[in-house]
Amino acid sequence: MILRRRPVAGPVPHAASDERIVDAPVSPPFGRSPREVLEQVTGTVLILVVALAFQLAGVSGPAGVALTVIVAAAVAISWAWLRFMPHPVRTGAGLALVRTRRAADGSRIRVLSLGGVWQSATYLDGRRFDPVFAYQRAFDAAFDAEGEMRDRFGHGLRRVLAIGGGGFAWPKHAVARHPEVEVEVVEIDPAVIGAARRWFFLDEAEELAEGRLRVRCADGLAVLGETGEPYDAIVSDAFSGAEPVRALAALDAVRSAHARLAPGGVYLANVVSRDDGRDLGFLRDSVATLTEVFAYVKVVPVSDEEYGGEDNYLVAASDADYPLAGAVPFDEGFLGDVIR
After folding, report:
1. Structure letter (DSSP) for residue 123
2. How many Cβ atoms are within 10 Å of 224's Cβ, its own excluded?
């Protein structure tokens, strides 16, 4: 990969926001959620269908067989509806849906969709702390650099800041697989945090992490502007529906992220293409912005054949030249406009 070295810029201060720790799921605004109403209605229908089945038990001949088939089909459809129907969640970015889907291997996954795209997902079996999407697994590149980071700078990955919660897929994975890591997750929308607690095993992950997974309901940009103990890595995966949060990719935010990193620390971001992969404008602009601040910037295409839509790219930036598997070369002509 062609690496571009630029002078390291200083931090740009931001006003810190008040911290709010969210410890409980968000309650439905009108007492019962739409799903709970539908469950009650479907349950009532099931009871009536079963009662009808008993009434028809004495019917014989072809009519009895046909009625039995109808009753069995009604029960099966009702059961499937209850199991796979979507859960609506009102978020600050619009109505999100939590759905259950089948993976290619036949296992069930739960997905959070918003703005027409899948924001996050979780397995529902023993792999519930393993990331479903390829780009989320790619964030483990931070751990790939840990050995060299420790040799050169005297520290590994102990403190990590994750901006953007969603289903908390990678933060849950990080604390589950790396017992020495502490991950602080910043999510601006309390409804998203509530959904993660209710349907994406966030509470269980927090309990198992024993204090190493901390959730903050706050603005990621404001958190980057705070002062305090530096982070060894910052992971950015913040979207408003299908759109990236441009303010978090702008030059001031990148400078603030650089200032919050320990020497040799790593900044990682998920960047998504547009127009079925033909529009890489935001990727080019993001890389141009990062090269204004960090000494080394690398790009890795992260394909996901099973869950593919738009193309995802892992963008890694640091003042140390860590090896990054799968990084592709780029030159001056690739760079877009600095995001301001």
Report:
1. E
2. 27
